[in-house]
Every structure is written in structure tokens, then in C-alpha cells.
Amino acid sequence: MAEPKEQKSPENAAYELAKKQRDISIAEFFEKNRHLLGFDNKRKALLTAVKEACDNSLDACEEARILPEVTVELIEMSEDRYRVIVEDNGPGIVKNQIPKVFAKLLYGSKFHHLQQKRGQQGIGISAAVLYSQLTTGKPAKITSKISPKEPAHYYELNIDIQGNKPDIVKEDAVSWERQRGTRVEMELEATYQKGLQSVDEYLKQTAIINPHVTIIYTTPKAEQVIYSRSTDELPVEPKEIKPHPYGVEIGLLMRMLDNTPSRTLQSFLTTEFSRVGGGTAKEICQNAALLPGMKPQEISRQQTEKLMEGIEKTKIIAPPADCISPIGEKLIEKGLRSVINAEFYCATSRPPSVYRGNPFAIECGIAYGGEIPADSTATLLRFANRVPLLYQQGACSMTESTAKTSWKPYGLSQSQNSMPTGPAVILVHMASVWVPFTSEAKEAIAHYPEIIKETKLALQECGRKLSIYIHKKTKATMQLERANLFECYIPEIADSLAALSGGNKEGILAHLKKMLHKPEIQAQLAQEENPYYDDTMKISAEKEDKEKEE
After folding, report:
1. CA–CA distance, 335 with 196 (Å, rounded to integer)
2. Structure confidence by residue, pLDDT tens digits, 478-537
3. Which of 406, 422, 397, 509 is nearest to 463 (CA)?
4. d(CA 35, CA 131)
């Protein structure tokens, strides 16, 4: 007969549970939850690794005011294993920072600064290194050089999972032909496929939204694709701003009050927030029923709630917009022209707006006709801070805004609350100091009413430009069809008129052809299809004149 099991008392159970409890490092958490960072399948893992490395390269180049040139190479090692190499001409990374940048999660320079950047959380590239380590056991290889006068520093790095810190496998000073820059090499489990959610598509869209970038891409098939920059103009450098009072919550406000060096509540409001001057600070204190001379560290939670109410009652102007760097209408058009072969392009850039105290701007572009399929759903290209968003399209506010815009008045077919149908590529870009992504993988933008409203207004502005083009083209096409029809009967009409009037048939024929205005209609149609038609014709004429002179 089996002995009865010893019954555990509640007190003993509590002690047993306490023995099992311990700290969880951020690296351990993402080791088990890598899907949150975009590594939930092999195809997506390859794209995410390339994306994170490219984002870091572009941010570094733009901060250093260097026109970026990024080289991406994918090498197939076996059926489901690839080597990813990303190299740039940026400023490089200081030696002692290299291990932390690539092998420590939640480490970076962008999280605490309110200005437009591609990266936000300091997770991306170190997460790619973590995935590489988990799936192949091999360290990431990093080479970086900050000056032609100094050697390049080479590291082989793993991540100490429990400590969330770098594990340096190898360290050396090496010679490198580049003047400066950074090279990242990782080997990981992955699958390469072409399509709308592939590395190929990501780099193509990156070239569209970053017309100042040159990308040299070598596919696993050893095919080289080069996206040359279409402008030498670097984006305007965004400036850092302080938080806006409308964007803080009570917990953050309490922490700011505890940590501020300011001696009075009034000076705290004027120094720790943007758009708060002395008069506005006094008005906030008055609306909160608090004294401006109170010490911030002595303010209680109840008084902090009153301060929040005072902020809500006070009219404070919107934060400055120089912390964001929109692309601009001309460069959006250039980017579309450089990659998409269409017959019409247009773009618009909305004035900056605000959500939760964070400035943002929505930009939109449309490419229409040409080689774009006419019998399929319009393609939507989504971007945030110049980065393509290829996954979770259905969960994104940009998709909702596009579907809820009425496209029929603008010349595209559409079923109710669905994407339009027609030969169109629609581009939507959001520039912001803090993009409200729905997850750490940064694949979709949250449904804030302010963002949806601005997106719809931008789409409608582009829609009106498209409508004007389609109307003019349709009108010119109909005129040309009528002219062609009339041209068929000109010889018979000339015969009849010559017989009735006794005039010269050849002269009547020439006069009737002149009445058609066919060359003018053809020129008008060409002008609608190519806004630079007049310039092209002028260059051709000048070239012909020069050849005649010679």
C-alpha cells in the first residue's frame, strides 16, 4: 500500500514558490518571445535582420550629414541558412561602444530624445544578433572605422542572455579599405523568397522613400541590383524638443517632478516642457490652484492630479515642428519616378499636426498608369519615418484611412470601405518624433483619430490632382478619336468640295487637315502623360539645330 503524500502547508508552499522566483533579463524575455520583434518565421526573420541593419546605417549617415551608400549582400549557406552582410559609409562607431550597440538590448541613443529617427527603442540590431546566435550559435562579426587615420576595429560578439550584456568572442584591430563606416555580418536560419514581403521589396521601397540614398544589393542568386540616388540633397536635420504638457501622463509627471533640478513649480514648467513660457506657467498654476513657488519634490500625488487638470484647462500652443523632417512633394515624386514606371505622378505634404502632444506630418504620393496593372487592387506603400512597413497592413491606420476615402470621384473604382481598384500605387508616409506602432516589431500604426484624419486629407489632396489629370487625358483622348474619325473622310469631303466649288483639291485637302488641330491634341495628350514634355521637346529641338549647324 502506497504511503500517503505529505500535505504541504500554505506557509511552506509560499517558501517553495519564493525559491523559484528570480529576475528575468530583457534578453531572456525576447529569447522566448522573438515573434514580438519580427522574428516569427524564417522569411520574415531575414527581412527583419536586413531592415534593422539598414535603419541603423541610414540614421548614422544622416546624423553625420553624409550621403548614404549602403551595400546589402545575402549569401545562401544551405537550404535554410543565410549570411547577411550590410555595409555603409557612415561615421563608424567608437571602439568601446561597439559591443553595447550590437550585443545589449534596450541600449541606444534615441529613446530619450524627442526628434525624428528611424530607430526608437534600442532593440533592433541587437535583436537580430540574438536571433542569429539562437538559430546558428555563431557570433555576429562587426567591423567599424571612424577615421582614415585610425585602424578599423573588428569584433565577434554574442549576447550573454542572463546578464543582457555583450560576450566578446574576439577583438582585433584590422586594416580596411574604407575611409570610415560599419560592416555587420550575421549568419541565421532564414528563407529567401521574392514577393511583396521580401528583402527585395523592402530595399525597393527604401529607395523610393529615401531618394538621397544609393543601395547596392546582391541577391542570393549573385544578381546585383543598384538603386542610385535621385537627389544629392540630404533631409533637413530634425531638432530635439522637450515634451509637450499635453503629452504627459500623471505617472511620468510625478517622476519628472521628483528628478527636476528646478527649485520652483513655475521654473519646472518653463524648463522641462516645450511651448511653456512664464505667463503660461503662471496660468497653469492658477488653473491648478497651486502656488508657482512650490518646490517640485514636495508636490503630492493629489496636487499632481490638480496640476494635470490645470494643464488641460490651459490653452497651450502646439509643439514646434522642426523636430520632424518631412520628405516634401518634389522628392516623393522623384522617389516614385526612380523606381515605378507610370504615366502620372503627384504628391502632397500636409502641414504638421499633433497627437498626444507629439508633432507629426502626413505625406502622400500617387503613381498612376504606365506599367501598373489596371485590373487589380491599387498597391498601398506604407512608411513611417522613411522606413517601409511591409507586414500587418490590415491592422494599420493608414490602410483604414485609404479604404475609407471615397476614390470614385477621383477616377478609381471602389467597393464600399475597401481598397480602390485601378492602375495606381498609393504612398503614405508619417514623420513623427514618436510613431505609435502597435507592437515592438514596428509594422503597423495605431488608430489615433488625429492620424486617420490627416491621412485622409492628404489622400484627398492627391486624389484631386489625379482626378484633374484623368479628366484632361480623357478629354484629349476623345478629341483625338474624333479627329481620327474625321480624318478618314477628309479625302471624300475634299473631292465633293472641289467638285462643288471648282477649287483646287490639294489645297482643300491641306486646309481640312489643318482644321483638325491633330498635332496640338497629340501634344496636349503627351503633356498630360509627361509633365516635362515641353522641356523634352525643347532639348530635342536644340539638339537638332546644333546637328544642322555642324
Report:
1. 18
2. 666 666 666 676 777 777 777 777 777 677 667 666 666 555 555 555 555 554 444 433
3. 406
4. 10
| CATH architecture observed for domain 329-461 | 2-Layer Sandwich (3.30)
Fold of 26-227: Heat Shock Protein 90 (3.30.565)
**Model confidence pTM above 0.85:** no
Section 212-223 average pLDDT: 94
109 or 284: which leads in pLDDT: 284
pLDDT for 539 equals 41
Answer whether residue 426 shows pLDDT above 90: yes
Q: What angle do CA 58, 145, 387 make, to 5 degrees?
A: 10
Distance CA 215, CA 201 (A): 13
Q: What is the pLDDT of residues 448-471, one digit of tens each?
A: 999 999 999 999 999 999 998 888
C-alpha to C-alpha distance for 221 and 74, rounded to whole angstroms: 9
End-to-end CA distance of the chain: 116
Secondary structure class of 442 (helix, strand, coil) = coil
DSSP per-residue letters across 352-421: PEEETTEEEEEEEEEEESTTS-SSSBPEEEEEETTEEE-S-GGG-HHHHHHHHS--GGGT-B--TTS--B
| pLDDT computed for residue 416 by the predictor | 82
What is the distance between the alpha carbons of residues 315 and 313, in angstroms, rounded to a whole number? Answer: 7
Query: How many CB atoms lie under 10 A from the CB of residue 252?
Result: 11
Assign a CATH topology to domain 245-313: Helicase, Ruva Protein; domain 3 (1.10.8)
HSE value, Cβ hemisphere, 13 Å, CA-based, for 416: 0
In the three-class reduction of DSSP (H, G, I as helix; E, B as strand; rest coil), residue 436 is classed as: coil
